[in-house]
Amino acid sequence: MMELLERVESSYIPAFKTMLMDVEAALTEAQDVRLHLMPLKCRLEDIERVEFSEVKPFLLPLLHVVCLIWVTSKHYNMPVRIVVLLQEICNLLIEQALVYLSPEDLLKGDMEESLGKVRMVLGILNTFKEAFEERREKLHTYYEPGQEVREWDFNSTMVFVRLDTFLKRLEMVEDLLATALDLMKLEKIEFSGIKGKTLGQQVLDMYEEFQEAYKLFSERTYDCLDLTNMAEDSALWAVESPQDQRVPPRERANISAMGQHRNVLRLHEDFATLRWLKDFEQDAFGFQQKVEDIDRRLGTVFIQAFDDASDLEHAFKLLDMFGSLLERPVIAADAADKYSVLISMFSRALDHARLIYSRHIQTELKLGSPPVHKNMPPVAGALCWARELRARIQVPFDQFRRIPHLYQEKLYADWSQTVSEKSQYSLTQPLIRRDPETKLVTVNFDPQLVLVLREVSYLSGSRLGAIPPPAAEIYSSKESYRQLAANLELMVNRYNKVLKTVLEVEYPLIQEQLRLNLGMGKGELSDVPMVLMLLAESRGCSCTVDCWGVWDHISMVMDDVHDLEQRIQKAKNNVEEIQTIVGSWASPIFVRRDCRTESLLSLEDCQDRLEQRYSLVRESGQRIHLLVKENQSLLLADPASDIWKAYVDYVDEIVLDGFFTAIECSLKYLLENTDPKAGLAPLFEVQLDLVIPDLIFQPSLDPGTKDGFYDMVEGLLNDIYRISSLVPRLAEHSGFLHYQVRGCGAPSCWWQ
User: Fold this and answer.
1) Which of 569, 627, 693, 718 could pair with 574 as two cysteines, CB 3.0-4.6 Å apart?
2) What is residue 204's predicted lDDT score, i.e. its pLDDT?
3) Which helix (H) or strand (E) holds 695?
4) Which residues on neighbouring strands pair with residue 738, listed in sequence order?
């Protein structure tokens, strides 16, 4: 067609070209979308194929494919499209749940079975929401290194707008069924005592009122899970067009934002019937009010019946009859004060049993044998009496242990319901955490996880019930967690030791090594969740663990940190050795003969002492250079880099201070021993000889005289200063060969 238009030079060529380009772009986009959505098809078919109670294992793989679509598709990685896709998945789950629940029979069939189904659906749908949030947080792991990461920055309420509404309705149905199941027990409650008949009739009347109120739901024709049958705060407008002026402006804006998604907006053909549909919720609200009234009256009945109970046996029978009804908030509030009364009754029963025992013993002492039942032999009769007395105590005591609302079982049930969520959250936390201010790292072994391990350790031997599977699974790997925490703690201590002890001049040399020690291919070690440790331990070579290489990486990081800590410590030890070496120079070169305070300066062995000191300084200088060269290797430093030169300047200052201290020590010795105020013996000796016709000092005291006194003293000073020229300069970049500078004409210019 294009060739034909060009041949006839048609004026439609530009328009046709534009249309052709649009078609090609649309085709490319359609092919890309089809290519990336095809893997999703089998996942959705798996969910449609199985019963909804078996859907949970398929949710995470489904979201995994959605994440891959977001990362790899060029045309489907837009929030508006991924939101609609996730909404459709939610709609599929809702439809499958509705098929599983059979809403038309949900409130008409067996209550216990219906309640179990509702709780199963609630658990699965909440698991899907949790899996979505988990994939959202880990979305960056799907990108290759260096690839730009695009997060799901849209609000999750846009995805779960209909699912949340459905969950809210399910929770309402769950509460309704649980309440009805509790109140069905009213039919079997019977009372004894003076008021028994009256109280029994009151409870029977309450049961009939409950039956009448609940019967309303079975007679209604509406669907209790129909999302259009919602109250005003959560209702959806049913419209044909968001531009219809009869729709309130706020709702019109919401509809426009949501688009024309058929499963979110229920379209009704007759707009004249537009209204807030809330029949079920009105009925549920009315039922709840009726139930609250029944609960208040039941609480009153329980108190009257308890007060009418003649002994512990009747009190415990009353508690058994009410059972789980006592856990209902209104009734529990009324019955709470009666537990202390029950304990007081048991205490009185114990006192009475003790009195019976005391009387029995006294009678036995008087008669010489224990009193027994008629026709019973002495020993067997005594044992029978003892068993009866023990049963008198043991039976009510066992009843105490069976009361569920005396804190124990309720506490365990509450813990069982929350331990899974807490432990899973703890396992998703990073292995280590860094303080943003101090840069120190700590092992992030969550206290909640430690608490779960301790709780299971103590509860595993109890008879309260089975340990929840998530907690049991964590506890089965406690040894792995212990080893992991110990190894990480050792690594963290070494890493922090380096950070705490490193000097300012050393830090630039190891800064890159510190960063690499905590780095890995897809992020830092602090990004690795603790749950991967459990996976690595329990599953061996799983895909997730292989992708991260968790165990191998942690071993590598631990070895690297250990190696770095040892190298840094060795470098510090070398610097300390240099300080010790230069400190050994700090002693006078020239001293009095035999080190006696009354002796003169020993000039005879000056040359020997000088050679010994020079030899010591030369050997020390060679050792210092070797240590600095070793530090260069230990710190993996480039000798031509500025940061290494700065480090050499730091060590060079240590050597320079050592020479300064050594020379100062020798000069100070001479000054102190020639100070006339010190009152010490003379340090030098000068002879006055008579050489006719002159008096001559030996050595000469005339300045400038060769081999005179001044020449001798200047020679001693020069010998002292000369030690600084025996060691080649560490800081070669300073331009000086050694630590003595010549040519300034004064002894004070010996150093630079």
Assistant:
1) 627
2) 87
3) strand 694-698
4) 728
Report d(CA 160, CA 157) in Å as an integer. Answer: 5
pTM: 0.47
Kindly report the three-state secondary structure assignment for every residue of 460-490: CCCCCCCCCHHHHHHHHCHHHHHHHHHHHHH
Q: pLDDT (tens digit, 9 = 90+) per residue, 531-573?
A: 334 333 333 333 333 334 566 777 888 888 888 889 999 999 9
270 DSSP assignment:
-
- Greatest CA separation for the chain: 155
Contact (Cβ atoms closer than 8 angstroms) between residue 445 and residue 496 = no
For the segment 269-297, what is each residue's pLDDT rounded down to a tens digit? 333 333 334 577 788 888 888 888 888 88
How many other CB atoms are found less than 10 A from the CB of residue 85? 17
Q: What angle do CA 280, 284, 289 make, to 5 degrees?
A: 150
What amino acid is encoded at 177 in this protein? L
- Per the rule left: phi > 0, alpha: psi between -120 and 50, beta: everything else, 303 is alpha
Q: For 639-664, give the secondary structure using H, E and C.
A: CCCHHHHHHHHHHHHHHHHHHHHHHH
Token couple for 310: 């003649």
Q: Are 236 and 228 in contact (CB under 8 A)?
A: yes
| Cβ neighbourhood burial of 38 (10 Å; 0-12, 13-18, 19+) | exposed
Tell me the C-alpha distance between 385 and 365, whole Å: 16
- C-beta of residue 444 within 8 angstroms of C-beta of residue 527: no
Q: Within 10 Å of residue 673's Cβ, how many Cβ atoms?
A: 20
Other beta carbons within 10 Å of 617: 23
Closest CA to 460 of 451, 472, 469, 470: 472
Grouping H, G, I as helix, E, B as strand and the rest as coil, residue 172 is helix
Q: What is the residue-averaged pLDDT of the chain?
A: 77
Say if CB 415 and CB 331 are below 8 A apart: no
**Residue 495: what are its φ and ψ, rounded to 5°?**
-65, -45
The residues facing 434 across adjacent strands are: 441
Residue type (1 letter), 527: D
> For residue 492, which of 460, 526, 520 has the smallest C-alpha distance?
526
Range scoring the smallest mean pLDDT among 140-154, 336-350, 590-604: 590-604
> Cα(255)–Cα(262) distance, rounded to whole angstroms?
11
